[in-house]
Amino acid sequence: MPELDIQVSVEDAGWPDEAILEAAAARILGAAARYLAETEGQPFPAHPVEVSLLFTGDEDVQEINAEWRGQDKPTNVLSFPAMPIQPSDMPGPMLGDIVVARETVEREAVALEKTFDEHLTHLLVHGFLHLFGYDHMTAEEAEEMEGLETRILAGLGLSDPYEGQVPV
């Protein structure tokens, strides 16, 4: 069974309490890791793999997005793998960082007619898959990644977030 060491930092007052976010992250990322290991054959080391989560706001995410991706705007989630891996590669002891912008998650949840928690769950799974080398730059990659997200979310009792959409 894959083990995760999840480090949580909260840098925006609008987020739920850190203990609530830690429990949610353990449940969500744990389910995603189990799915990858049991269904997709993703190898995991015998030791826990560290994942760092930063829950912050649009302003901080905009700065990070501008610096690291050259896009001077906020976005919902950013993922930074500790080292580049491809799906099915063995991760190192540090998987990487996931950064989430609260205001963007709130706006998108309303627009998508989802609860905040449902949308956050989707984005954490999405960011986690990026750390394993999954991407959505081509239609083929998007189909694979979105399929994984949908199946992982179904295991968490959530509906298909891409229903009715064409992969991009």
Automatic annotation (TrEMBL):
Task performed by this protein: Single strand-specific metallo-endoribonuclease involved in late-stage 70S ribosome quality control and in maturation of the 3' terminus of the 16S rRNA.
Enzyme class, UniProt record, top EC level: hydrolase
Cofactor(s) of this protein: Zn(2+)
Keyword set, alphabetical order: Cytoplasm, Endonuclease, Hydrolase, Metal-binding, Nuclease, Ribosome biogenesis, rRNA processing, Zinc
Gene Ontology MF annotations: metalloendopeptidase activity; RNA endonuclease activity; zinc ion binding
Cofactor note: Binds 1 zinc ion.
Record-listed Zn(2+) binding positions: H126, H130, H136
Identification of the protein by name: Endoribonuclease YbeY
GO cellular component, one term: cytoplasm
Subcellular localization(s) per the UniProt record: Cytoplasm
One GO-annotated biological process of the protein: rRNA processing
Pfam families per the UniProt record, alphabetical: YbeY (PF02130)
Organism: Allorhizobium borbori
EC numbers, comma separated: 3.1.-.-
Similarity annotation: Belongs to the endoribonuclease YbeY family.
